[in-house]
Amino acid sequence: IDLSIEQGEFELYYQPQVSVGNNEITGYEALLRWRQKDGSFISPAEFIPVAEDTGLILPIGEWVLRRACEEAKHWDKPLRLAVNLSPVQLGHTDLPRLVHQVLIDTGFPPARLELEITETAMITDMARSTFILRQLKALGVSIAMDDFGTGYSSLSTLRAFPFDKIKLDRAFMGELEDNTQSRAIIRAVLSLGESLSIPVLAEGVETVDQLNFLREQGCDEVQGYLLGRPNRRALPLSQESVEIAKAG
Ligand code: C2E
Ligand code: CA
Ligand code: CA
Fold first, then answer.
1. Is 227:241 a contact under the CB 8 Å cutoff?
2. Which residue has its alpha carbon closest to ligand 1 atom 25?
3. Rounded-to-integer distance, Cα 61 and Cα 96, Å
4. Confidence grade of residue 25 (pLDDT, cut at 50, 70, 90)
5. How far does residue 241's CA lie from ligand 2's centre (Å)?
6. What pLDDT does 248 receive?
């Protein structure tokens, strides 16, 4: 896998995150793509676990961060850039130093960078994880809790560290239409975010019904195929998506 970095087989795609209040793009999440010789892609869900087992996620993760900051510097608007961090990277002592170095090397403003971390990344050593997250935050970057609601300790993790954003896992979205429980859980998470003053972004929004429900319930931001798919470039909202977002 590491050879692939040198051979330019890795690319970053960018998916918009959209404010429910004014239907404008607030930022983009960088998503890693591994392009095969035949032009097809291997999903990160497949190769990231392998890269984590072999330790290759460290050079790959560094490449992602550096490349994303370099590319985002040239966007038309200075919007937020969200980058995923692997639990293995969080477990590595030098993460704050690496992030600091990349910010210096690329000249990317820390205030525009958001690091996404899953709660499962933190549970093995909560004290150590929160220590590292605090060091990261001290650099001026923000920290989002990714895949919220799928782990074992979402609530205690929220208590342990002042996250800047909660990303509600897309599993709840898929079941929203015909599952009363899912709707109740989404409401509960939104009210939790409100009580803790942490904005909530709902992932995996694919339908107008889902968007309308989230808007009614006071969700702050949305991300999903309805608003825009991950793309090689940080594209503005399509006319179609703008109209969808404004309706309802
Ligand atoms: P994630 O961080 O939860 O990223 C969101 C995933 O949901 C992405 O899959 C995205 O393409 C997909 N998605 C977005 N909108 C929708 C939608 O409306 N419906 C559905 N069904 N899916 C949607 P992707 O790009 O295949 O990435 C999968 C996972 O791989 C990511 O989940 C993340 O955990 C990991 N990953 C991706 N890039 C990186 C990276 O640079 N570093 C690390 N450590 N992990 C990464
Ligand atoms: Ca993510
Ligand atoms: Ca996620």
1. yes
2. 31
3. 13
4. very high
5. 21
6. 64
